[in-house]
Fold each of these.
Amino acid sequence: MTAERADLPPGTTGPGAPAVPGAAAFPAAAGLPSASGVPVPAPSASGVPAASASGVPAASGVLSASRIPSAAAEPLLEVSDLTVEFHQGRRRPPLKALDRVSLCVSPGETLGLVGESGSGKTTLALAVLGLVPVASGQIRFAGHDLARIPRRARRSLSRDLQVVFQDPYSSLNPARTVGKALSEPLEVHERVGRAEQRRRIATMLELVGLPPDAADRYPAEFSGGQRQRIAIARALMVSPKLVICDEAVSALDLSIQAQILNLLADLQRGLSVAYLFVSHDLAVVRYLASQVVVLRRGQVMESGPARTVCEQPSHPYTRALLAAVPSPDPRTSRAAPMCASPARQAAGLPRPRPEPDPTPHPPGGMQ
Amino acid sequence: MTSPQLRSAELGVADESVTSPDQAGSAASRREPVWRRFLRRPLGVAGAAWLALVVIGAALAPVIAPYDPQAQDLTSPLSGPTMSHPLGTDQLGRDVLSQLLSGARPTLVGVAAALAGWLAVGVTLGVASGYAGGLTDTVLSRVADLLLSLPVLVILLVIFSVFPNSLIAPMAILGVIASAGLIRVVRSVVLTVRRELYIRAARVAGLSHARIVLRHVLPRITSTVIVQAALFAGVALITESGLAFLGFGVVLPDPSWGGLIAEASQALSRSAWLLLPSGGMLGLTVVAFVLLGNAIRDISTESWSAPQLASRRAAPVTAAGATGTEPAAPPAADVLLAVEHLCVAFRDRQGSRLVVDDLSLVIRRGETLAVLGESGCGKTVTALALISLLPPGGRRTAGRVLLDGQDLTLLSPREMAAVRGRRIGYIAQHPMISLDPTFTVGAQIAEAVRCHQGSGRASARKRAVELLDSVNITEPADTFRRYPHQLSGGMLQRCVTALALAGDPELLIADEPTTALDVTTQAEILAMLARLQRERGMSLLLVSHDWGVVASMADRVLVMYAGQLAEEAAAADLFTGAAHPYSRGLLASNPQLAVPGERLPAIPGSVPARSWPAGCRFAPRCPEAEDECLAGPIAIRAAAPGHFARCVHVTVPEGVRP
C-alpha cells in the first residue's frame, strides 16, 4: 500500500522514494507502548532515506546513504588540552573555566558532554564556536585550529560548524520572520536566487516537521518546541558537518523533548551530521550519544562509550551524578518520610534514605 | 480513527503544524498593516494629525496664509479673535495666524537640523559603544560624559555670534551636544541585545559584524530611538523658541514662534490673548510629538511581543458555591485542604480563556500531593489560585478552597493575607529571583518572622538563624548576613524555604522547587523538604514536571492536561499502571526508560494554545481515541479505589467520583 505524500511524516524524502522504508523508520503508533505492544524496531541502515533526493543541499559532499561509524575515520573535531580562563580582577587569579580538556568527535556521531552548572561545558561549546577566547590548547576542525584562526577563515568554516542554543525564546530574533531567519546562513555562504532560497527553506521546514507557511510568521507565534525546530532548521540549512547542541532540549517539556530527540536522531541518520551534545541530563545523553565526556569544574572526570559511562561509571563523580538522579520508580527512589497516612503505610513503601550532607558551595560560585 | 487529525496522530514523528483556528487568527492580527494598528490609538492619531497640520501649514504658508505676515493694520492692533483675524493681531496689527504659519517653516527646519545632528551622533556612537565594548566603550562613554558636561546655552550663544542669522548650524550643534543622552540610552539597549542568543547564532552563521548590526541590532533599538526622538524634538522646539524669544537666530521682522511669544509677553498688560495662540501652538506641538512617539513605540513592539493582558481591572471574585450536584459533605478529619471544582480564567486580548477547568483535589495532613503536567496545563495557576495570588488578568470563576473546613474564597484580602505564610507557605521556582537583592537574606527572613509571629527584632533574628539552621545551611549566622547574589542556587533555595517556613505553615506549596538546580543539589533539596515535612507534620503540594522528583517525594499524584485533571492516583499505582493514555505516554517518553538505538516513544503534537475540543482534550494526540471521545465532555471515572482518570476507556463502570 503506497501511502500518499500528504501522509508521509516529515523527515522522509520527497516523491519518488518508496514509502515503505520511510515508513519503517517511523512506525505508526510508535508513540505509546501500550498501543503497539511491540518494541519499536531499530531502523536498519538500508532504510535510511537518501537525503540527496529530498532537496537538502548535497553540496558539502558529506551526505551518504548509510551511516557506518568507523573507528578508523579521521576525527571531525579534536580538542587537545584546551584551557579557557576568565579574569576576576587584579587581585585574584584568573578563573579556570576549562583546564586541559581533550575530546574528539567522529564524523556522523554524537559526543555527549555532561556536567553540572559551572562545569565548563557551555564554555567549551562557546570556545569551539569562537565566541570565547582560548588561553591555551588546540581545537582542530577540518584541518584548521579554531583557537587561533583568523576571522575570515572562521567565517568560511562556519558553514560546517553550526549551533542550536538552549533557550528557544531568545535564539530567534523576534522582529524577523522565520523565513528571514532561515535564509540568513544561505545568504552568507551560498549565493542562490530568491526562488531557490524559498525552495530550500520549504524543504527544511518539512524536514523538521513544520508547515511551509511557517516561513512567513514570526517566532512569537510558535511554541517552545516549534521554535527549537526552527533553530535546528536554521543550523542545518547549509548542511554542516558538526552541530553543537548547547542544552538544546533542556528547556522543553518532557513530551516535546522526546519529539526533538527523535528528530535529532533522524536528522543525524539522514544527513550524517555529527553532534556535540552538551547537557546536564545523563539520561538524554545516554540515549542520543555514542561517546560521553563528563566534566566537573573545568576538568574531564571520565570519558568513554555512552553505555559504559552511563551504566557502569568508574569515576566517583559520575557515580554520584547517577545516584543523585531520582529514578521514576517510587519503589526505589523514596526520599519522602513515612507518616501516619494509612494510604502510605498500606503501600508498604521502604524507609527514607538519610539526608546527604550539603556540598559546600563557594559563595558566588560559577553560574 | 476517522478525522485527519487523528490520522496524523498515528505517525511516530510529531505533527506540530499549527492548525487550530485561534492561532491562525492571532497570526492574522500580527500581520495587520502598521497603519491600521496605528489608527487604533486615538492619542497617537491626534498627535500625528496635529503635526501633519503644522507641517502642511508650514509648507503652504505663502499660499494659504490669509494675510501677508508683514502687513500691518494699525487700525486694529491687539485685537482678540475676530471674523477677519481668527487668531487676533499683534501690536502692529499683523495677523497672528499668518505669522504662525510663516514662522513655522524656519522653526521646523531648525528642529529637523537638531534631530539630524542628534541622531547621527547619538545612534552611531551609542551602537559602536554598546556593540564593540572594551576600550571603544570606555572611550566613547567618556566622550558622552564630556558632552553632558558642556554648558549648552553658552556654546550656542558663541555659535550665534559666528552664524548670527542662521538657525541651522546652532541647532545642529545643539543636537550633537544633546546626543550624549541618546548615546547612553542606545548603548544600554545594545548591550542587552548583544547578549541575546540570536546574535550569537548570527555570528556562528558567519555574518559580519556590520551585517549583524544592520540586521539585528538596529531594528531592536528603533522603538527606543523613536521615543527619545519625540522627546528631544519637543526639547529642541522649546530651546529654539527660547532662543528666538531672546532674539537669536531670527532676522527681524521675519516672524517666528519665539518672536511671537516675546511680543506677547511685552503686550501682556494690554492684551492677554496674544499669549494663547503663540504659546498654545508651541505647547500643542510639543505634546503632539510626545504622543506620536508613544504610539509608534507601542506599535513597533506589538508585532513581536506576546499579547498583553487587558488592562481592565479583573472583576471582583464572588463567592461561588460548589457547581457539582453532590451536597457539600463535611470534610474528613484528616483532610487539610480540599479544592472543589476550581475554575480559573484569564483575560487577554482575544477574550476570556479558561486555564483551569473544574479541578478538585484533596490533601491530607502530612501528605505529599504532586501535581504533574507540562507547560500550559495550569498547574502553576492552580497553586497560585489556592493562595489568591493570581497574576493580573486572572481570576477564579468558580469553586471552593477549603482549608481545614474554612472556605478561603470567602475571605477578604486582609484575612487571606493572614492565611498566606502562616497557614500556607509558598516556594517559587527560581530561587535567584525570589529574594529581594537589596536586602540580606537574614533581614528578609527576620522580617517574615516578625510579621507572622509578632516578635521583636532580636528574637526575630534568633529565630531566623534557627530557621536557616533547620534547612541545613552549614553556617547560618554567616549566611544571615549575605546578600542573595553571593549565594549559589542550592543555598538560595534553602533560604527561600526557610522564608516560607517562617510562619510555621501547615501546608507548603512548592512550585517546581528544583527545576533550576543541578541534579546533586536537587537531591539535597528534596531530602531536606522531606525531612522538614516529617519533623513538622506539614503537608506538601509539589508542582513538578519531573517524574523522578514525583516518584521520590509524592504519596499521591495528580496529572493535569490542558487545565483539567487527567488522572489521580497513589504514586505506586500510577507508575505501575497508569490509566490515562496521556500519563502512559508521558511515562514512556522519559529518556531514563529509553533504549538507545530504538526510537523514543513520543506523544505527537502539542497542547493547543487556546481552543480546546468539546470532547476529550487529549483526543487529537491520543492513539486510542475514538468517536466517543469527541462526542462531549468526559467525566472522571474510577479505575480502582483511589485511582481516577478522565478517560472513556477506564473500565470500571462506576460513575463520577465521590
Amino acid sequence: MTPTVYVVDDDEGIRKATSRLLTAAGFAVSTYPSGDRLLAELPPNTPGCIILDVCMPGLNGLELQVALADREDRPPIIFLTGHAEVPDTVRAIRSGAVDFLTKPIDPSALLEAVERALAQDARDRANREHHRQLVARYDRLTDRERQVFVRLIGGQLNKQVAADLHITERTIKLHRARILQKLDVDSMAGLARFAVEIGVEPRQSTS
Amino acid sequence: MTPSIAAVSHRVGRSATRWWRSIVPLMLTIVVAASGTTAAASDREEALAASPQILVVFSDDPSQSWIREMTDGMNVVTDERTGNAPAWYFEYLDALRFQDAEHEREFGAAMRDKYRDRRLDLIVPIAGNAITFVAAAREELWPDAPVLAAEYGGAGTLATIASQPKTLTLAFEYGLPAVLATVTQVFPDITGVAVSYGVSAAERRRESGVAADVRKAGLDLLEVSAPTLAGLVERVARLPERTVLFLAGGQIDANGRALPTWRMCETLSQAANRPAIMIGSQFLGCGIVGGLMRDYTKIGTIIGEHALAAASRPDAASETVPFSAIATLAFDARQLARWGVAESRLPADSLVAYRPPSLWRDYHREAMIIATAVVVQSALIAGLLYERRHRRRAETESRRSLALAAHADRRVAMAALTGSIAHELGQPLGAILHNASAAELMLTADQLSRDELREILHDIRADDDRASQIVQRHRAMMQKHELERRPIDLHAVVREGVALLAHDAARRRVDVDVRLPETPCVVSGDPVLLQQVVVNLVTNAADAMIQTPPVRRRVVVRSESGPHTVTISIRDYGSGLPPDVKPHLFEPYFTTKTEGTGIGLTIVRRIIDAHDGTIEARNNSDGGATFRFTLATAAHGAVAAQAI
C-alpha cells in the first residue's frame, strides 16, 4: 500500500500548491479543508503522514492531534505554524509530532519532513505489526503457561517456579518448552526480550 | 387678574355719577349757546373794535417773496397787553407793472369802495410807490387815519410823506456797506462789484442808492445791464476777475412782465463766472453765496410792532431801524464749495445752509441711535460669525482629532493584527513558493506538461494578487487619513473589514459569519473609517467570547435595509454586556479588557456620529450582545455604486 500524505489546510491556495509540490516529488497526496473532514474521511490503517496547519478554524491542529491519538494508527503529523508558539510546540511534540515547521515553509524542508514522517510511519507501522504479532503469540499461552512465563522471566529457577506453583519441576520443564514454542523464541534470553517488548511484568520469587 | 364683583359694581356706580355730572353743564352750554347767537356776533365786533384795524399797502405784487415774508412777519405780532393781534388788511399796488397814474387812481377808488364800512385805525404804506401813493391819496380816501410809512430801501421816499400830519415814518437802514464789508471778508481779493438792476428802467431807478454805497466801500462799480434776460446771462458769464455780482433787481422784464425773482437769480448766478450776492435773505439757495442779508420776516415783524404801537399809543414816534436788527448772516454751502471758500473764512456766527446732507450733522441723535444699532448688530453678527467660525474650527478640529484618534486606534488594532498579517501573507507566499518548487521538480523530472505549467502560473498569479490585496488592505488601515465622504458600497466595506480580521479570527477560533446581500448598499461615507468601525466591532465581538467554548465562538454580521437607512448588526455569542458596563460602553478609556486601549468603541461612536448615523448595543435574549449601527442610504440613483 502506497503511503499517502494527508494535507489539511483551510487555505485552498496552500492546499493546492502543497499538493502539487508533493505530487511532483512523487508522493500520493490527499487534501482536506479542515481537521473535522480529515477525521471523518481518513481511511483506517493507511500508511502515510499528515501535514497540518496549527491555526485553522474549527478543530485546530493540536485538537486534531489529540483526536487522532485515539485511533489505532497514528500517522505522524507535520505541524505547520505561522509563528512558533513555544507552549503549542512543546505540546505537539509531546503528543508525537514528528516535525514542526515554521512558515514560510521551505519546500525542500517540507519534502524532507515528509520523507522523515513517512519513514517514521513505516517504522511505527512495522513496530506496531511486530508488537501485534508478539501479543498474538502471547495470547496463545494458557493461564498456567503465563504464570510460569512471568516467573521464568523474573529469573526464577525451574524448581523455584515448581515450588511456587505447587507443581512438579518436570511439569515446569514441559510448560517452558511449550512457552518457547508458542512464543517462537529459542532461548531464555529471547524470552526475556519478548517480555520486555510486550511489556509483561516479571514476577520475582515469593519464597 | 379678575376684579371682584364688589369692585366692578363700585366702578359702575362711579362712572354713572360722572356721567350725570358731565351732562348737566353740557346741557346748560347748549341752552346758553342757542339763546346767545346774536350776543356772540356782537362779541366778535367788540373784539375787532378793541384791536386796531390796520391797512397795509405794499408797492409790489403779493407773489414776491419779500412781500410774503413781510406779511408773515406782521402776522405774528400781537398786543402784549390785550393778547389781541391787529386786524391786518393787505393791499398791493403792484407799481412796477402798473406804472401809470390812471392805475393809481383806479386802485384808490377800489380801496374806497372796499373799505367803505371799515374803520381803519392806521394806514401803513411800505416802500417807495406805496408811500408816494398814500401820501397823495390819504386825504381823499382815509382823511382821519394816521399813517405809518415804512421804507426798507433807504430813506429816499419817506421825505414825501414825513411832513404830513398824523404821520410816522419807519426807516430801515439799507446796510449795503455792511454787506460789502462781509463780501470782502469772505472774498479778500475782491476789488469791484458788478451790479445788475435787472432789465427794467424802473428797478434801476429804484436801486440807484447802490452805486454810492459801492464806491463808498472803495470798490469799483460795474453796472451790468442788458435789454433781455438772455443778454444779462451773457454779460454775467464774462465778468472781470476780482468782482462779485450783486443782483439788485430783476422783478420784471423789459416789457413789464413779472419775472420770478428766484428763477432770475438761479439763471444769473448759475451763468455767472463770479460769485453772486443778493440783499434778501429769502434768496439764499437760488445760487447766491450769501453773506449779510435782509431778513424780510424780521422787517415785517418790526413794521407790525410799530404799526400796532402807532395805532394804539399816542406817544409812538418815527424811527430808523439799524441794519443789524434785520440782518441775517448766512451762506450757501454749495456756493462756498463752488467758489472755493473755506467755511473757516466765514465770519463768526455765520449760518451755513444747504450743506450736503450729512447724517451726523443733521440727524446726529438718530444717526447715533442707528450707529449704535449698527454697532450692536455688527457686534452681534461678528459674534455669531466668530461663534460660527469657532464652531467650524471646532468641527474641523473635531474631525481632525477624530481622524487622528481613529488613526491611532487603527494603528493599535493593526498592531494587534501584525502577527496575523505575517501569517496571512505567509499563505499566498507559501503557496507561490510551493507552486514554483513543484514546477521545478516537474521540470527536473521532465514531467511538466504545458497545461500544468499554465495552471501553476495562474495559481502563482492568483496568490500574488492575494498577497498584494492583504498588503493594500492593511496599508489603507495604517495610513493617516482625513475624514472624507463619498458614495461607497457599505457591504463591500463590511466585507473588507471582516477580511482584515479573518486570519486573526481563525487564530482565535472565532467563526465570522457574514450574511450580507450581494446587492451593493450605497451610503455616503468614509470607507476607511467605516471599515474601522467594522473591525472594531467584530474584534470586540470576538473579544467578548474569550470565555466561550470554541465551538460556540461565532460572530454574525448582518445587514438590514430600511426605506432610507441601512443597519449593520454585529452579534456575538458571548456572555453579553454586564449592566454596569452598558452605560459606559462608548466612553473613552473605558475598557474591560486587560489589553484594551479603551478607545475602540469611542472611536466607533465618533465615526458613526461623523456620518450622522446612530449606534446602539443590546444584549440578546438568547445570549451575547449585538451592536447595531445605522446610516442613511444615499439617494436612489443619485450616486452610482462605487467599489472601494
Amino acid sequence: MGVNMAGHTVTRAQLSESVYEEVGLSRNESAELVESVLDEMIAALARGEMVKISSFGSFSVRQKGRRVGRNPKTGDEVPILPRKVLVFRPSHVLKNQINATLSDDA
Amino acid sequence: MTKSELIARLAEANPHLFQRDVERIVSTIFDEISNALARGDRVELRGFGAFSVKQREARVGRNPRTGEAVKVSSKFVPFFKTGKLLRDKLNT
C-alpha cells in the first residue's frame, strides 16, 4: 500500500542520469559510480556495520532469534532459523521532506 | 560507515576523481531518492532494495504520561524493503 500516486518508479538508470547531469562524468562512468556506492554500502552491511547517511537515514543489521512460524496455507509449524535482517530508519529530515510535499494533496 | 567514510572509500577507489566530485555523486544519489519519495514515487534498486512511501491513517493516540487522548493526524512514512540479494549477503 505504497502511495505511488503518479505510478512512477525510479531505478538505477534515473540515478545515473542525475549523476551524469550533475557531475559531468560520462554516462558510463556515472552508472559505474552509482553501482560503486551501492556496492560499498552492501559490503559494509555484510560486515555487520551500520551505514549512516546524514539527513537521509541509517541502515543497520539486526539479529533475529529462532522462532516457530506457520505455513499460512497448511497451518504446519515450520522452524524459522536465526537470521540477520536489515532495518532502515529514515532521518527526520527525510520524513519532514516527504510530509511537507505529500500531506498537502493527501 | 558514515556518509563521509563512504565518500572517502569511493575517493580512494577512484583516484582520478576530485574529492568534491565524489561528494556530489553521493549527495546526488541520496537527494534523488529523497526527491522521488517526496513526489510519492517508488525507488527500486535491484539487489539492494526498494524505497516507498506508506500512509499512516489518522488515529487517536494517548499521552502516555497523562493518559489524555490526542488526535494524531495522517502522515506519510518512508519504507525500505531489503532486496533479495542483499538479504542473502547478510546471512552468508
Amino acid sequence: MRNKNEHAIYTQMKRSVVLDILKFLAVIAAAVWLMSRGTERLGYNWQWYQVPKYIFQIQDGQLIWGPLIDGLMVTFRITAWGLVLATIFGLVTALFRLSASFVSRALARGYVEIIRNTPLLVQIFFLYFVLAPVLNLDRFFAAVLALSLFEGAYASEIFRAGIVSIHQGQWEAAYSLGLGSYHTYRYIVLPQAIRRILPPLTSQGISLIKDSALVSTIAVYDLTMQGRAIIAETFLTFEIWFTVAAIYLIITVTLSLVVTVMENYFKIRV
Amino acid sequence: MSLKNADDYIITVDSLNKIFPGGIHALVSFSTKVRRGEVLVVIGPSGSGKSTFLRCLNGLEEIDSGSIIIDGIPLDDNKKNRLEIRKEVGMVFQSFNLFPHMTVLENVNLAQRLVRKKNKEQATQSTMDLLQKVGIPEKAESYPAQLSGGQQQRVAIARALAMMPKVMLFDEATSALDPEMIGEVLDVMKTLAREGMTMIVVTHEMGFAREVSDRVIFMEDGAIVEEGTVEHFFTRPEKERTKLFLSQIL
C-alpha cells in the first residue's frame, strides 16, 4: 500500500521517462558519431549486408540457421546449466556458511575466498587442463562447472545476505513451534528471503551469461567462439562483434524482464 | 487462590544462571516451581531478567548452569528432549512474529501439519476452532499485514495453542499494542487461564494479574525480590523495592 506522498514521487518519475528517453537517444547519437568518425579514420569498410547469412539463410525455401545461432544455442545450454548449478552452489554454500558446524563454515569460507580472489579465466584453464582429465569431463561440462563455481561463490553471498536479513523473531517463532531447521528454511525463511535475493541474483545471472563468453578460450563453440571464427575468415570485425553483442543484450534484457515478472509474483503473495 | 494440584509441578527450575556475552548476569541462581494449571505472573523493571527467564524455559536462550525440567523432561543437550519441550511449550512474543507471507489460516496450520503431522482437513478444522476461540474466524484468509495489532496477537496465541502445548509463555504480549487493543488480547489470555492452562506471563498488566493469577513474582537483577499472591502485592508488599516499583506501574 503506497501512501499519497509516495504516489506523488511515482508520478514524477513517470513524467521524467520522456526526458530520460531523450537523454538516452542523445548519448547513443554521440556514441554513433564518435564511432563513425573513428572508423572513418581507420578507413573501415562497413559490409553489414554480409552479416545476415551468418544468422540464417534460406535455401530452396528452407530455413537454415547460421553459425551465430548454432553458437547461441551452445551459449544457451551453458548458461542454463550454469544458472541452475550456480544457484545450487550458492544456496548450499550460504547454508554451510550459516551452519553451526565449524567444518562446514570453514569449507564454505575457503571456497568463496578462493573463487572470488582469482580470475575466472585462470579457473577455466585450471578446470579444463588440470581437473577435467582427472574427472573425465568433456570441455562443455568443464566450462559449465567453471562458470557455475565462479558465479555460485558470488551467489552464495547474495543468499547469505538475504537469509540473515530475515528478522530474528521469525526464527524464534518457528523454533518455539517445534519446527526443525529444514522446515524453518523451506517454509519460513527462504520464501521471505527470495524477494530480497532476486534483484541482486539477477545481476549475477546476467554476469554469468556475459562471462560465458570466456569459455571460447577452451574452444567451446559458443556465440563468442563462432563470432571469432567468422571474423578470422572474413575480417568483418566490427559487424560481427556488434551483432554478437546485440544478441547477448537481447538475452540479458529478456532475463531481466522475466525476473521482473517473478518479482511481481512474489510481491502479490505478501 | 486455590491450591491447584498441590504437589504436581509441571516446571521445576533450579539455580539457573545465565550470563550474556559481555558479562551481563541476566539470571542469578534463579529457582522456582510451577504447578500444573497455575498462572504465574512475572513483573519487574526492564533488564531484570523476566524475558530471559521465559526464553530459557523453551531453550531460546542457552543456560550457563542450573537445571530446567518441564513435565518430567530435562532441558539439556539431548536434541530429542529439546524438541519435545519446544513442542509442549507455546510462546507468544511481544512483536507477534507472525509469518508475513502466509495467511492467518496457513500461519496456524503450519506447525500442526509439519510437527504434529496432521492432514490438511484436521489442521484446518482445529485452526478454525481456535480462531473462533480468539474471536476472529472471519480473518482466516487475511494476511497478517491486513490485521490490527490486537488481531495479530490473537492469531499468534491461536498459532501457539494449535500445538496443544502444556505450558504457555507470554513475553510482554500486550506491550506493543495500542491501549484500545490490549483488552481483547487480555480477554483471550484470561479465558485460557480459566480453562486451566499453565501460564507464565511477563506483563505489567496488574489488572490481569488480579483477575487470574495464582502467584506473582517480582524480579530485579536476575533474582526474585518478592513473591506471593496478587493480594499480597496489592495490600502488604514487604520490600521497599517492590513498593517503589508498584507505585510506578500502578
